[in-house]
Specification:
With 386 residues, this protein is α/β, with parallel strands linked by helices. The chain has helices spanning 11-21, 24-31, 38-48, 93-104, 118-122, 139-151, 170-174, 183-195, 198-206, 226-236, 243-252, 265-273, 295-306, 321-329, 339-371, and strands at 67-69, 72-74, 78-80, 109-110, 130-133, 156-160, 256-262, 278-281, 311-315, 334-337. The strands form 2 sheets. Strands 3-10-9-8-7-6-5-4 form an 8-stranded parallel sheet. The protein has a two-stranded antiparallel ribbon with strand order 1-2. The structure holds flavin mononucleotide.
């Protein structure tokens, strides 16, 4: 439906703005998923397939979206998921996201492979943030990273378990990100970047430097481009990791431990047995094993298996406040958003992200009111129309 289109309203609006703003290869890296992108799509469409139940004539004049998790009050049950290379999508993107999350009162999780380092993000404010860890073959480097995280006040570690090997993202292949380009390809990529996206070149490409993996610079001293770091990370990802390694992790990390990337009841139980305080039901936003079920489809089975043993969060396909309510109705305590926050910060920086989070909170408030509940704790399966 044509409108004046003067201001972004929904996640899709921010996505379209980000698409205009970013060079094609960066937008596709953010927006795309693995292989045929079937799981990426079903993460979203399975939310769309769930219906909320309209419930009227209840006193919803006093309503709050706040929740308490890991001893922290969140203004709404949404955290910013770890996204690698966010600093390529907005100038020092990780720090802008941290500022917006602080402003809004929700957790921000820094990726191992962020452009900004733990120390740079910590310098934004004294409010603690989460740190996401990939297991590296160099366990000494892992210990040092965790030590650095602790010393900047990180209390919650998110350990990602669904990246034993990296799923191929065909958009990246087509854009020449995962392989060599011929001269014609290089020329076309340069034209798209420098001529079609001069604003990104100035704002992020030049003023947003350095584009190194801030947390890893000391381990890869010769690397100068994200591609150099990506090669190092590819070689460092430890495909031999098993639940036994969580015991080791537990022995060197005494803060909260969240296991991210379980998608089956059996793995969720194994995570709880290994000492996780929480699990994130996740398929990495459809970027790893294409063809697996959506996170929201698997959530109820994980909830049944785990009961109250750990907190249960979910990510993948959350695009609105209504989706957050659906996830909570199916038993999650909270949600994370990945692409949506990056679309917003890529489109309009920190302010854009704050506005976007405001929109999500507004959607949540209205949907809570119209489903007849006033507190997050009242959200249950009774709010779904089945
Ligand atoms: C561009 C991009 C980079 C990501 N990088 C990481 C990462 O470094 N570590 C990680 O645990 N998950 C990473 N993820 C996965 C997200 O944390 C999250 O699980 C996923 O984006 C959720 O799905 P959504 O984008 O549909 O919200 C990444 C996702 C995207 C889109």
């Amino acid at each position: 439906m044509p409108t004046l289109n003067l201001a972004p309203a929904s996640t899709e609006d921010y996505r379209l703005l980000a698409e205009k703003r970013l060079p094609r290869f960066i937008f596709d890296y953010l927006d795309g998923g693995a292989y045929q992108e079937r799981t990426l799509v079903s993460n979203v469409t399975d939310f769309e397939g769930l219906q909320l139940k309209q419930q009227v004539m209840r006193d919803v004049s006093q309503l709050t979206t706040t929740t308490n998790l890991f001893g922290q009050e969140w203004s709404m049950p949404v955290a910013l998921a770890p996204v690698g290379l966010a600093g390529m999508m907005a100038r020092r993107g990780e720090t802008q996201a941290k500022k917006a999350a602080d402003q809004f009162g929700i957790p921000y999780c820094l990726s191992t492979v962020g452009i900004c380092s733990l120390e740079e993000v910590a310098a934004v404010s004294g409010i603690p943030f989460w740190f996401q860890l990939y297991m590296l073959k160099d366990r000494g480097a892992v210990e040092e990273l965790l030590q650095r995280a602790k010393s900047v006040g990180v209390k919650t570690l998110v350990f990602t378990v669904d990246l034993a090997v990296v799923g191929a993202r065909y958009r990246d292949v087509r854009n020449g990100m995962s392989g060599q380009l011929d001269t014609y390809g290089k020329l076309r990529a340069a034209i798209d970047t420098y001529l079609a996206h001069p604003r990104w070149v100035m704002d992020v490409g030049l003023q947003g430097r350095p584009h190194t993996f801030g947390n890893l610079t000391e381990y890869v001293p010769k690397a100068t481009t994200p591609a150099d770091f990506a090669a190092w990370i590819g070689a460092q990802l430890d495909a031999s990791v098993t639940w036994k390694d969580i015991e080791w992790l537990r022995s060197i990390w005494d803060g909260n431990l969240i296991i991210k990337g379980v998608l089956s009841p059996e793995d969720a139980i194994a995570a709880a047995d290994a000492g996780a305080d929480a699990v994130i039901v996740s398929n990495h936003g459809g970027r790893q094993l294409d063809g697996v079920s959506s996170s929201i489809a698997m959530l109820p089975r994980v909830v049944d298996a785990l009961g109250d043993r750990t907190e249960i969060l979910v990510d993948g396909g959350v695009r609105s406040g209504q989706d957050v309510i659906k996830a909570l109705a199916l038993g999650a305590k909270g949600t994370l958003i990945g692409r949506p926050w990056v679309y917003a910060v890529a489109a309009q920086g920190q302010v854009g992200l704050e506005n976007f989070l405001g929109t999500m909170a507004g959607e949540m408030r209205v949907s809570m009111a119209l489903t007849g509940v006033t507190e997050v704790g009242e959200i249950s399966s009774a709010l779904l129309d089945r």
